[in-house]
Amino acid sequence: MKVIVVGVGKVGRNILQCLVEESHDIVVVDQNAEAVQTVVDRYDVMGLCGNGCIAENLKEAGADTADLVISVTPSDEQNVLCCLIAKSLGAKNTIARVRDPEYNQQSAFMRDKLGIGRLVNPDKALAEEITRLLRFPSAEKISTFAEGKVEIVEMKIPVGSIMAGKKLSEINTGKKRFSILIAAVERDGNIVVPNGDTVLKEGDVLSICAKHFELCDFLRGYGLLKKKVQYVMILGSERSAYYLAHDLETCGFKVKIISPNREKCLDMENKLDETSVICGDFTDKEVLEAEGISDADAIVAMSSYDENNIMISLFAKGKKVPKIVTVVSNASYGGILESIDLDTVVSPYQVVAEDTVKYLRSVSVPADSRIVALYRIADDRAEALQFNVNHHREFENKAIKDLHHRLRHGILITAIVRGKTLVIPNGDTVIKGDDSIIVITTEGAISSLDDILK
What we know:
CATH superfamily of the largest domain: NAD(P)-binding Rossmann-like Domain
Radius of gyration: 23 Å
Mean pLDDT: 90
Helix content: 25-40%
Largest sheet: 6 strands, parallel
Number of helices: 15
C-alpha cells in the first residue's frame, strides 16, 4: 500500500519502523532536510523536504493516490489541516496526531464531519497503558481484547519462583484448573510457541491469555500476584502525566505528582480534583524521600528525559518500591535496559505505532474479515490479533484439530470469545459462526482471517 508520513520526529519514526517491516511503499515529508535524509538513508524510503500543509507538496508526494496519509508533526492544527488537504486531493484514508485535550473532545466531529479517519494521541494512549499496568501490577504489559473480556498479560518468572523448572504440562494441574493459556515464551531474545514439554526457566517472559480474575487466582497460587496498588507517585509534568493522574483519580487511586515546573504544577493543580501536586526537583533524592517515595505502592517516572526516568527508577528500586514504571522514548536503549532489569518499561509511541498498523491493515481488507484488535507482544517479536469469524466458511463449525494443519507456521489460536464466555480451546473445540478468535503469530503482516491459513 502507498503511505505518506508527514513529520519524522519520534512518533513518525516509530510508526515508520513498523510500516517498513510490512513492505509498504512509503514517502516521508518534513521541513527539516537533515531529518528527512536521515530517515531516507536508514529505512530506504522516498523523502520530500517541505511543508506537509501545502497542497503542492502533498501532491508531489503522491497524496492523490495514497492509501493512507499520516500527519504526526508537533502541531495539532497542522496535522488536522494536512489530513483535510490530503483527503481533498484524493487520499483514501488519513490519521492525525492530536494532543490537545480540547481537540480530542471533538474527535467524533472530526471523524464524521471532516472525514479524518483516526485521531491518535500518544500522551493519552500512554496514560491508558500505564493505568492498565497499575491496576494489575504483576504484568509487564497488558493487551485487552473483546471489550475487556480477555487479556494477554506479559510477566517475567522471577528468581526463585516455584514455576521455574516445571514443564508446561505440569502447570495448572491442581484441583481447580484455570481457563488460561501460556501462548508464548520469550527467552534470551527468542520467541517460543510452547508445547507441553517446554520447561519454564527463571527470567522467561510469559504471554498468558486469560480472563482477569482467573489470571489473578492462577498467579496467586504461584506466589506471583503482586500487592494491589493504591498510592501512586508520578514524577513529571508532561501532558501524559495529567492524563494519567486524571485516569487514576477516576479509578480511585491516591495520586501525587512531583515536578520542578511551577507553571505546569499550578495548571494541573487547578485541573485535578484529588491529586496532590508538589513543585520540587524529583531528581533530588532528599525531595523524593521527604515526599514519601518509600511509602508509594508504585512510582511512574515519566519526565521528558529518558535518562532521568531511568535513574529515578533505579533509585526507587533501591527503596524497594513494589511497582516501578519507566517511560523511555529512545528505542535504542532497549538492550541496555534489559541488562539493568527495570520493572516495567513503556514507550509513549509504541501504542500509537500499533494502532496505526492495525488501522492500515484493517482498511486493506473487506470489513467482515478485518482485524478487530492488534497488539505487539514479546518485545515486538510477536503479535496478538482478534478477528470476528462472521460465519467465515473456512472456520465456522470447524474443530481446532482440523484447522491445525492448515494454519501458517508460527500461528496459534489462543482463545475463543463466545458471547460473554472465554474458551481456551483444545483440539476438539469447535469454532462457531458468531465467535471471535484471538491468535498469536510470529510471522507478522496478518490482515485478515484468510491470512492465517496456508
